[in-house]
């Protein structure tokens, strides 16, 4: 899923939390409430979390303009951090693990002690069964969620 926002790495080492942009700018002070929230959720764990900082409208869609406006007006409480990958945890590089395993571990850390919300799915069950029987498209996938994440090269072209 593509979000319309800013990519951030959250580095958590005890009380030292850093929110770093793709351009290596430290946004920790700009996003104080986010840093505090991550510290509370991760506790004593040391972690490197990959995610996207976004502004979400009433329909659940992300928009870049309101994100920039909230940042310019110093209103970080209007923003959401979608954490989508756990790259490092408590001294262990997790990139060799399958992506789905890292996502499950990330969800456990973020949701521990919190009730899990469940969306009603009964009304869509028949549609899901039909979709599951439909033939897959003939396109090939560049990566698999069950495969390890290969290391990136500094000289690799940007993919946008």
Could you characterize what this model shows?
The protein has helices at residues 32-42, 64-72, 99-111, 125-133; strands at residues 6-13, 16-21, 46-54, 80-89, 92-93. The chain is globular and about 35 Å long. The longest helix is centred in the middle third of the chain and has 13 residues, at 99-111. The chain has a domain at 6-111: D-amino Acid Aminotransferase, Chain A, domain 1, CATH 3.30.470.30. The relative contact order is 0.14. A five-stranded antiparallel sheet has the order 2-1-3-4-5. It is built from four helices and five strands. With 160 residues, it is an alpha+beta fold.
CATH topology descriptor of the domain at 6-111: D-amino Acid Aminotransferase, Chain A, domain 1
Head-to-tail CA distance between termini:
13 Å
Specify the helix fraction band.
25-40%
Question: What is the alpha-carbon Rg in Å?
Answer: 18 Å
């Amino acid at each position: 899923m593509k979000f319309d926002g800013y990519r951030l790495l959250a580095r958590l080492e005890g009380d030292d939390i850093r929110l770093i942009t793709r351009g290596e700018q430290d946004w920790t002070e700009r996003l104080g409430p986010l840093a505090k929230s991550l510290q509370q959720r991760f506790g004593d764990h040391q972690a490197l979390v990959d995610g996207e900082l976004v502004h979400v409208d009433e329909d659940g869609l992300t928009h870049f303009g309101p994100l920039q406006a909230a940042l310019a007006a110093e209103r970080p409480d209007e923003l959401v951090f979608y954490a989508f990958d756990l790259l490092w945890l408590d001294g262990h590089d997790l990139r060799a693990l399958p992506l789905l395993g890292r996502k499950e571990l990330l969800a456990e850390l973020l949701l521990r002690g919190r009730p899990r919300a469940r969306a009603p799915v009964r009304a869509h069950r028949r549609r899901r069964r039909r979709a599951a029987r439909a033939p897959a498209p003939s396109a090939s996938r560049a990566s698999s969620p069950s495969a390890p994440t290969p290391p990136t090269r500094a000289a690799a072209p940007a993919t946008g």
